[in-house]
Amino acid sequence: MTELPRTRLAILCRFPGCDQAAAMVELVPNGGRYADGNTDLLHQIQLTDSTSSGTIRLSGFLPYTEYSMQVTDYEATTTAVQNAGADAASVLHEIDKEYAPFYCRHCLRPYCGQHWQLKATFDHGFDYYSGSCPYGHRKFIDH
Question: How far does CA 141 lie from the centroid of its chain?
Fold first, then answer.
């Protein structure tokens, strides 16, 4: 049996003059560990209706949180991201906009949290972020 590939990459902010990462993205097959050695709750539970064979974890972008989610077509997603090079953010966004909350679909660029104007909304716990990119394009992020 062939082991599924894993991917870890920093998506760089494309705001002029910025050298920060917009986010760290990790794609890990079910049962695998992230680079920091941690596993994900999604790896520890069995979802009977799941067609996922892996997860994506995003860190370093949203204040207060990092998050992960199942990837329905893990092998195709991992291959697309590995082949995308500097365009990985747009590829992730095209596959599923939830995979790239740091990406502005109007500017066609990823930005770090320092350049997004994000506001966390707390209502009975944490609910969502809203805000705009450096050029004023609005975004809603529900994780």
Answer: 11
Alpha-carbon span 112 to 84, nearest angstrom = 19
Give the neighbor-by-neighbor strand order of the sheet with 138-141: 117-122, 126-132, 138-141
DSSP annotation string for 2-64: PPPP-EEEEEEP-STT--SEEEEEEEEETT---TTS---HHHHS--TT---SEEEEEESSSTT
Could you read off the pLDDT of 120-131 as tens digits, one per residue? Answer: 887 776 678 888
Question: What is the rounded average pLDDT of the residues 102-113?
Answer: 96
Give the torsion through C-alpha atoms of 64, 51, 32, 58, to 10 deg: -20
Alpha carbons 137 and 44: distance in angstroms, whole number:
38
Please give the Cα distance from 41 to 76 (Å, whole number): 23
Quick one: pLDDT at residue 49? Answer: 47
Percent of the chain whose pLDDT exceeds 90? 52
